[in-house]
Amino acid sequence: MNIIHSLAITSILTSTSALANINLTAKDGFTLKGQYFSAPSSSDSAVLMLHQCNYNQTMYKNIGKQLASNRIHALSIDFRGFGDSATTQYDVRTLSQLSTEQRRKAWQDMTAHWPSDVQIAYQFLKDKVGAQGKIGVIGASCGGSQAIELALNNQIAAIGFFSSAQNDKNIEKYTNSLSGKPTLIIAAEEDGRTYTSAQALFIEAKHSNSKFLAYKGKDHGYPLLDKDSNLTPAIVTWFSHQIN
User: Fold this and answer.
1) Which Gene3D superfamilies does this one have (predicted)?
2) Is the CA virtual torsion 170, 192, 186, 224 positive or negative?
3) pLDDT (tens digit, 9 = 90+) per residue, 116-156?
């Protein structure tokens, strides 16, 4: 699939790895905001990081830095309507002011763009790693569904589900088409459907490098990164082994 996109680098911070705030132009002209953690130009591996729907791209800042330090390009984006990708037209913060029916329609209108928006982000990384490069994706909570759709339509080398509840339809998609890929699954035992669907995904996972990290309690997504200082390096190490 050939998708035309544009990129504007708005700022660069120099540390162990370079962090750039970037603009990606979606196919309808909408501007998506992201953070790109650059690896050496010779690197042919990358990870796309998709946030959960009660947070934004910044949840992956430390993971992105460590991936880049391990010679892996990393990109996190704000979904349309979230974080720095919110506009007067698309803004999740204003949905509560609408009636139930208006809220449902506004959510559907906004999220309908997400698969093509995520495709733009994937193409950005594909341009970095080249045709033979390897790209992994991790999706937290609602980002997991977008990770599945991306992996169904592109060459994804490894996939991660971070506190990401999946419905039966998505579990079936994973089972039929994605279960042979290395899969990292993270969930807390008291996190309801998130944990039971994580178990279902892991049962179907066929690759020997697939891994399930289970936590006590009910923390959902990014709070687990604060709770366990070993989780960030564990995620980075796992992806490094799959795509480096």
Assistant:
1) alpha/beta hydrolase
2) positive
3) 999 999 999 999 999 999 999 999 999 999 999 999 999 99
Q: How far is CA 81 from CA 8, 97, 235, in A?
A: 19, 15, 27
Per-residue pLDDT of 40-49, as tens digits, reads 999 999 999 9
Which helix (H) or strand (E) element contains residue 78?
none
Length of the chain: 244
Label each residue of the chain as H, E or C: CCCCCCEEEEEEECCCCEEEEEEEECCCCCEEEEEEEECCCCCCEEEEEECCCCCCHHHHHHHHHHHHHCCCEEEEECCCCCHHHCCCCCCHHHHHHCCHHHHHHHHHHHHCCHHHHHHHHHHHHHHHHCCCCEEEEEEECCHHHHHHHHHHHCCCCEEEEECCCCCHHHHHHHHHHHCCCCEEEEEECCCCHHHHHHHHHHHHCCCCCCEEEEECCCCCCCHHHHHCCCHHHHHHHHHHHHHC
Domains in the chain and their CATH numbers? Answer: 7-243 (3.40.50.1820)
* Residues whose CB is less than 8 angstroms from the CB of residue 99 and which lie 6 or more positions away in sequence, other chains included: none
Q: In what order do the strands lie in the sheet with 45-50?
A: 7-13, 18-25, 31-38, 73-77, 45-50, 134-140, 158-162, 183-188, 211-215
**Which element (helix H / strand E) includes 140?**
strand 134-140
